[in-house]
Amino acid sequence: MTPPLATERVLSTLNQDGSRHWIHPRLAQGRFLRGRKIVGYALIAMFLALPFVHIGGRPALLLDVLTQELSVFGAVFKASDGVLLMLLGLTIVVAVFLVTALFGRVWCGWGCPQTVYLEHVFRPIERWLEGSPSQRRKLDASSRPHGRRVLKWVIYAALSFVLSNVFLAYFVGVDRLALWVLHSPLQHPGGFMVVAGVAALMLFDFGYFREQTCIVACPYGRLQSVLLDRQSLIIGYDQRRGEPRAKPKKHLPVIGERGDCIDCSACVAVCPTGIDIREGLQMECIGCAQCIDACDAVMDRVGKPRNLIGYTSQDELAGKPRRLLRARTIIYPVLLAAIAGLFVWSLGGRVTSNVLVERSQGPSFVELPDGTISAQARIRIANDTDGDRSYVVDLSRAPDAKLRTPQLTWQLHPGKSLSIPLFVDVPRASFVLGKRTIHLRIQDDLGFARVLVVTLLGPEGSAR
Ligand code: SF4
Ligand code: SF4
Description:
Blueprint: H1 31-49, E1 54-55, E2 58-59, E3 61-64, E4 69-72, E5 75-78, H2 82-103, H3 106-111, H4 113-130, H5 133-141, H6 147-172, H7 174-182, H8 189-209, H9 212-217, H10 219-222, H11 224-227, E6 234-237, H12 239-242, H13 266-269, H14 290-302, E7 309-312, H15 314-317, H16 327-348, E8 353-358, E9 365-367, E10 373-383, E11 389-396, E12 402-404, E13 409-412, E14 417-426, E15 435-444, E16 449-457
Antiparallel strand pairs: 1-2, 3-4, 4-5, 6-7, 8-10, 9-10, 10-14, 11-13, 11-15, 12-14, 15-16
Helix pairs in contact: 1-4, 2-16, 4-6, 6-7, 6-8
């Protein structure tokens, strides 16, 4: 049965009958493509190198899902750093709001991995192997598999496998990943399944799903209507200059006023999301600036000034001046400074070790032959830093007391804790109603110091 046809405008990635409309954009050379290539390849190089970069002995960027730790350029956050992680997340969210209010979808067009890898890696391979958009459409229409298309998928699969490995290195670290990849899948079936699953997702996204990720799946793309205001930077078509559009007709006199747009559709042919920017700001526009490069080349050819399509704002297109200061560009920076400041302040005051008094086991005290009371205490030290620490425990402000410990210093590995039994010799007369308070000072070798108040139980006492 033939499906019914939509009577209204459908997504640019769909045909009127609901089937997929494959977009094969032409490539427009120009100043923005050059700039985007420089940014894109620099980002790819950074993405490939960062897992191997270490700062202070730790990966520069690692969200370790197994140990539940986040390393960011030397700083380490644990799952217990809930407030810090929340502040870090809020800082990123408000920064995204601010950048979008100022520069619109510049991230989508210039820095998003979806655009960077699709436009600068996967699509160039496709153009190289399958030729121009019309040649690719012929291949689409052909019912038998073509050698060049098969080769394209083989290269795509290999690339997806490599990229998925690098991607996973940000979550499990390069050492663990090397174990998974370099050994038989039978030795690490779980790890191998993860690598294969991520590679399959990448292959599906860059090979098949493509621009639909931006249009229907990406939450950032869906939020554009609320993140942008009329002053935000967008890519727009200057209707006042371009309309009424008309194709130039040879040998025919020009009748009436004509705009600068010659209705050549070059801007539509290069659009990777298949839209016509002349219809105004649309959610599908990812700000890739291909239509600017295409139209600039047309304007150069017909001897008209560039920028019929260009970076602008909705207000500017309506003939109003640009304003940098507006509610969003004042509130967001203030909010950002406050949250980022709170984050830095909390980071500076973060506790690196945890110490607490534990209930002691066995008899609370013994009386020594000279009549002195040897009372038992127990403390626990936890090393919450990312390096080995050496701890010393001594008495503070207790000249009549003597501390006896099994050893003088305690070494603790990162994330480890230790329960330490202590004996404090104090005169029998210093107990009041069976209790005596002492102060224990715990220090590590990197400046951490904490004084714990410990109540000793002695003669006539039974509860702490
Ligand atoms: S490329 Fe420029 S001249 Fe050609 S249709 Fe688009 S806006 Fe008009
Ligand atoms: S309308 Fe222009 S800027 Fe927007 S996605 Fe299409 S080509 Fe890129």
